[in-house]
Amino acid sequence: MDTPAAGKLVIISGPSGAGKSTVLERALKECQLPLELSVSATTRQPRPGEADGVSYYFIAKDEFIERKEAGEFLEWKEVFGRGDYYGTLRKAVTAGLNAGKWVVLEIDVEGAMMVLESHPNAITIFIHPGSPEELERRLRDRGTEAEETIQRRLEVARSEMKVGSKYNHQVVNDTIDRAVQEICDILSRGE
Questions:
Q1: Which domain holds residue 143?
Q2: Is 3 within the bounds of a domain?
Q3: What is the pTM of this model?
Q4: How many domains is the chain built from?
């Protein structure tokens, strides 16, 4: 019996409001590759409708810290000072790659730089809305966040967009259809 070819690691990042999740959800369905979205671990409580092992791996904070110190995470972060940790389990990514899957990480730029230390050949794609002004418009149009939160997200986005040039590819999400097609084209070339 033949063993599957080793998979590829794909990192997708971009600022909040760039439409990463929407574009990625469609790309996972439409790209003709064995794409598998990596499930992150978190210490936050599950929200209604979230399932352990599907939405996230929900683990206690002390266990997360213990596993982090044991080197079990490719990347990890305490998010927005809320005291909740998020991370990507090394074992889950390795299992997917060994099974021939193209494991997709949807992570922030800081996490991407951490992953690239151990996986320098990962395919990296930075999704953005084209300009800081468009990003601000999208965040405001959501109508779901306080001004202080919008300002914090914009500040983080400005620094993330400066790092975007370190990615193999930058995709402008001006229309979802076009952005999905561009991502599928990039991945089909395996670059």
A1: 8-188
A2: no
A3: 0.89
A4: 1
The CB-side HSE value for 9 (13 A sphere, CA atoms) comes to 21
Residue 95 lies in a domain: yes
Span 63-97, pLDDT tens digits: 999 999 999 999 999 876 678 999 999 999 999 99
d(CA 81, CA 191) in angstroms, rounded, equals 35
Q: How many other CB atoms are there within 10 angstroms of residue 153's CB atom?
A: 19
Is 146 a member of any domain? yes
Looking up tokens 């730089």 gives 113
Task: Output b/e per residue, 50-84; b: 16+ Cβ within 10 A.
Answer: eeeeeebebbeeeebeebeeeebbbbbbeeeeeee
* Per-residue model confidence as pLDDT tens digits over 115-149: 999 999 999 999 998 888 888 888 888 777 788 88
Q: Is residue 2 part of a domain?
A: no
| Residue 27's CATH number | 3.40.50.300
Q: Are 78 and 64 in contact (CB under 8 A)?
A: no
